[in-house]
Amino acid sequence: MSVRRVNFVLLLLSLVLLAFLLERYYRLRDAYYLEYLLHKEVMLLLKNYHTRQKANIDENFVRLKLSEVGADFVSFKQVDVGYEVRARNLRGENVPKFIYSLESSGVEILKFTGVDNTGQGLYEVDMRIR
């Protein structure tokens, strides 16, 4: 075997090894950047996290939230898992506003049922909150 063939084989072997190492380097770099971005996302979420004060749930609180969206209060009673609330004449476009106002006050909605028997977009609402 001549020296030229040995040099050529070593050159090819070096190029294959270099290609393999570069591919591995780029994979590791991408994995590192992904972990870094996930870490930064978690840090941003922790920085912007605000604890909410849970509202004191009573009949007056529920009446206030229902009057904000224009619904009529029917009943409020305490059950074993929280409170059962009934209301009527809640307009369909105000349902998301009502749910958002409850959840932003720290109230957990366990069950929500709305029935429109009139066909006019006025719902009778039964829900359980905690």
Indicate how many domains the architecture comprises: 2
Question: What is the chain-wise order of helices and strands?
Answer: HHEEHEE
Largest sheet, spatial ordering of strands:
1-2-4-3
Low-confidence stretches: none
How helix-rich are the residues, as a percent range?
A: 40-55%
Distance from first to last alpha carbon? 85 Å
Largest β sheet strand count, sense and barrel closure: 4 strands, antiparallel
Q: What's the mean pLDDT score?
A: 92
Number of strands: 4
Beta-strand fraction estimate? 25-35%
**In terms of structural class, how would the helical and strand content be classed?**
alpha+beta
Shape label: rod-shaped
Q: Total helix count?
A: 3
Compute the gyration radius: what is it? 31 Å
Report what the structure shows:
The chain has three helices and four strands. It has helices spanning 3-47, 59-68, 95-104; strands at 72-79, 82-91, 109-115, 122-129. Strands 1-2-4-3 form a four-stranded antiparallel β-sheet, with helices on one face. A hairpin with a 6-residue loop joins strand 3 (109-115) and strand 4 (122-129).
Give short descriptive properties of this protein.
130 residues, alpha+beta, 4-stranded antiparallel beta sheet, 50% helix
